[in-house]
Design a protein that fits this description.
This protein is mainly α. The protein is built from 42 helices and 3 strands. The relative contact order is 0.03. Pfam families: KAP.
Amino acid sequence: KSHSMKGGSLDVHPTEKALIVQYEVEATILGEMGEPMVGERKECQKIIRLKSLNVNTDIASLAQKVVEECRLIHPSKLPEVEQLLFYLQNCRKPGNDKQEKHSSRDFISFEGMELDQEANINSIDDYVELLYEEIPEKVKGATLILHLARNSGNLKDLMQNKTALGALARVLREDWKQSVDLTTTIISVFFCFSSFSQFHMLVTHYKVGALCMNIIEHELMKYDLWQDELQKKKQAYILLLRSFKALRKYQGLLTKQEQLLQVGLYLLLNLAEDTWTELKMRNKNIVQTLVKTLERQDEELLLVVVTFLKKLSVFMENKNDMAETNAVMKLARLLSSDHKDLLNNTLRLLLNLSFDTGIRSQMVQAGLIPKLSSLLADESQRQLCMCILYHISMDDRFKSMFAYTDCIPQLMKMLFVCGESHTDKKLISFCINLAANKKNAQVICEGNGLKMLMNRGLKPKDVFFMKMIRNLSQHDGPTKSLFIDYVGDLAAQVVGEEKEDYVIECLGTLANLTIPDLDWDLVLKEYNLVPYLKDHLKPGSAEDDLILEMVILIGTVSTDDSCAVTMAKSGIIPTLIDLLNVQQQDDEFVCQIIYVFYQMVFHQATRDVIIKETDVPAYLIDLMHDQNAEIRKVCHNTLDIIAEHDAAWWGRVQSEKFRWHNSQWLEMVEGRAVADDGDPFGYGDDGDPLAYIDDGDPFTRYGNILERPDLFYSADRIIPVNGTISPEVFTDYLNGDVGQAGGFPDR
């Protein structure tokens, strides 16, 4: 007889600081001539405990020693041993920190599973026989099998024992209402299998997942009945002693039920790795079940529930279910938990949900803004809190709420703590959003806030800081006045050879500074801005975004009389007209260019240039009826000013407004006039009943329309069109004041 051993795989021990070596032992019986007669192979494992392993251990030396002393490990596996030892050195011991998440085997330890004997895999048949006895014996047999299942090395043997697994599944299916301890123990056995993906088919085969769903739903209904009964006893003022006994009994039942819910939900969480299985759970209202369980107090149970919800929340259908069940209100209370893992997973779930605008509203209603703001001080949770708050700040309705928390002071402190070479993109993006609100801007600029921001924006030329500064500059009031001291610095950045995206932000900031006390003419001359603007306004000379900011800046400085004259003399108006022709499809460009003209017509010098030396009024008349309401509004206002100061354009503007307002009626009248001249049906030469005579002049095609009395009061063909009856007589006729005997005068 001969023996041979063959090394296999290496793994770490799930609960101890030890290595597990899987190997095979092959026994062969030799014949008289030495030939093999009978062979037997058995899989075994060896546990190498590493009691001396700690954070200061030299991993390389220890790995070399393990390989030398254990003949089952081939020297070629030295790197793998080092990697496993490094993992054991850095992983946390289960039980050292009750707030840390437990491993799968550690998780299932609960009250009532202690035994006075050691479980042995060779006695599995005896344990199965106990499952056919009464409830206490069934609990003992299931507990012994659970002790075996907690060792991952026994799972393959248990998987091959169909009798044991079948008996466990049968007892669970038939007796789960008889004993909570029995139910929890059997589900824990299958939970051990569910911790490994390769055993999921086994758990599914025995339909343990579906049964767990039914058990959990039943337990939640039972919990509601307990709550009602307890409330009735409190309201009925039962004797204090009886009430105390009932409360103690309730606490014991509650503890056992939460253990059952915990292991059952964890099993379902493991099975939900498969998307199809997760879909079946959703069809059985798993989301509603989990949200209802959020009302419980046990933190370990809540950790499983929140983790499960976090996994489900990546699908839109599940997210919508959470919105309908108002899960955010129940999650809000968990933000005050001292359990770090529970808090972290809650924040991650809220982050997943915060992409939905409706759920963001629920977060605000639940008071999450001050709670999350207070958590910014916790460095381990800061990034998650900041991301959620950033999503909330995207909605203009909620921006002002940040001004009433300590969020902004903390953000400003974090902004200036990080060095100039490194800017946290999440942090500065959040600040950019907040700066778009007036109340927030005032808080940000308090003290030396604006000065520190300008230093970061101007010296390192940080474009993100400049975006934040630009948002701050848009608010009227005391905040905008603070920027007077920095106008020169911003203008210098514009004419300097800087990156285009940075210059865009500087131009945008300057364009926002509509400050009456600011001498724009001095700024233009001192920094030679007019030639720069004229050169870069030419179509194609720069990116559209940069050109647009220049147009807006010209509109801002044109409010000053001397600046408007400077702009007009520089020949910048024809350049703007050329730009208008090129960008006529871009409503933003068109509106801003027209606004420049609007500002210029307020001043005598520039108004004369626009009216007499350019075609701006004609362009404005063409744009009076643009589809964009803002463009129409600016055009009408500009033309009204032009018409007020120029009699020639007054007639054209009024005629065009009248023609557009009464276009359908005019077409009908002109068509009828042609019919009176020889065509009894009014169809004209081309058969068009609405044809009209066009002499080629868009402003005078109807002659002087406003001086034709027939267009005002002869539309019903009753009153003569030669103007022999005045409008007053016609009004009297409509009011019934003209007698029928007198009638109307003849033509």
